[in-house]
Amino acid sequence: MDVHALAADFGFAECYVFTTEPFVAYERRLQDGALHSDAKGVRFDIAQIAPWANAILALVYPYRPYANEIPVSGYYPSSNAAYHVAGKLIRRLEESGVRAVRAEVPVAELLSRNGYGTLLKSGLTWLPGYGTRFYVTTLAAELTNPEYAPLRAPQPARCATCHACERACPSGAIDQSGYAYQKCARAYMCGGPMDRWVMDAMDCMLGCERCQTVCPYNVGIEPITQLPDAFRLEELLGGRVKPALEIVGKNLNKQGRLIQHACVVAGNQRRTDLIPLIESWRDDPREAVRSAADYALELLRMQAE
Q1: Sheet containing 99-102, strands listed edge to edge, beginning at the edge strand earlier in sequence
Q2: Residue 293 in contact with residue 265, Cβ under 8 Å?
Q3: What is the pLDDT of residues 34-43, one digit of tens each?
């Protein structure tokens, strides 16, 4: 079976076949506390979940960002689409006698240790041809006579003389020595109540895009200039979140995350016309939504005075 052609049929731009050796560097960083708590769900040893697997399929799904004036991250529509087509691909593989399961592994280490991706100062990974605007879903598979992607010589990052992401980061999470997730506002935008410094930094729903926007490796990627109606602040603050969740995935509604983010962005955009809609969320049972509404109303009432 040609897994590369099959992956292309499902919309993946690349299908790399890698070996399954453990992710030693990732495990060490996790133990040292250098990774966000969410990293605990990532597997650093495929043998623990799929001892029968002899290959990791790394499926690349590129995406276009939204234009700067559109306050939505382009990452989650891509990851949601990739998740669903990966499920279809797994079923097709199984129908053809190839055993495969989803396997969440350290993608940055997977790409970099094989020479296909380069780690950047911003904590992002550059994949030639796609910049940092891509999502990779990984499968553990049992292939007959797997043909592994050949190792490549790693390409050094040109970060030493570039300070674009350092200057753009709203919370100072990037400096010449690299990226610190503890200072990254995006690391704290996952649905729970947000500290004020996180909300102050938010100008984009579902994450911060500033380091990617200014990264030279992303030059030439054409942005999407039309805001989907589903992400209009009026729609979200009116409680009509289902169309947006169909695009980004239902799991992103944890603790009212979309409404929470819409409140904060509306406040930071000084959308005083949305005050009545935001006020309706002040008594929401979810603390994250209430605190976001209070934050936005404080800013907007100051603007209105």
Answers
A1: 14-18, 55-62, 134-142, 99-102
A2: no
A3: 666 565 567 7
Q: Could you please report the per-residue DSSP string of 146-212? A: --PPPP-PPPPPS-TT--HHHHH-TT--EETTEE-GGG-GGGG-SSS---HHHHHH--SBTS--HHH
- Those residues whose C-beta lies under 8 Å from the C-beta of residue 252, and which sit 6 or more positions away, are 76, 191, 206, 245, 258
What 3-state DSSP class applies to 123?
coil
| CA distance readout (Å), 260 to 79, 126, 146, 187, 300 | 21, 31, 46, 15, 15
Query: Which has the minimum average pLDDT: 19-28, 79-88, 185-194, 261-270?
Result: 19-28
Residues 130, 109: Cα–Cα separation, whole Å: 17
Band (53; pLDDT cuts 50, 70, 90): very high
Tell me the per-residue pLDDT of 72-127, one tens digit each, with 9 for 90 and over: 999 999 999 999 999 999 999 999 999 999 998 999 999 999 999 999 999 999 99
- Classify burial at 192, counting beta carbons within 10 Å of its beta carbon; exposed 0-12, middle 13-18, buried 19 or more: middle
Q: Can you give the residue ranges of every domain in the chain?
A: 3-142, 186-304
How far is residue 75's CA from residue 248's CA, in Å, rounded to a whole number? Answer: 9
Q: Are 45 and 28 in contact (CB under 8 A)?
A: no
Q: Distance between CA 271 and CA 297 in Å, rounded? A: 10
Percent of the chain with pLDDT over 90: 85
Q: What's the topology of domain 3-142?
A: NADH Oxidase (3.40.109)
Output 251 or 262, whichever has higher pLDDT. Answer: 262
Number of neighbours of residue 274 by Cβ within 10 angstroms: 22
The CA distance from 228 to 240, in Å, is: 13
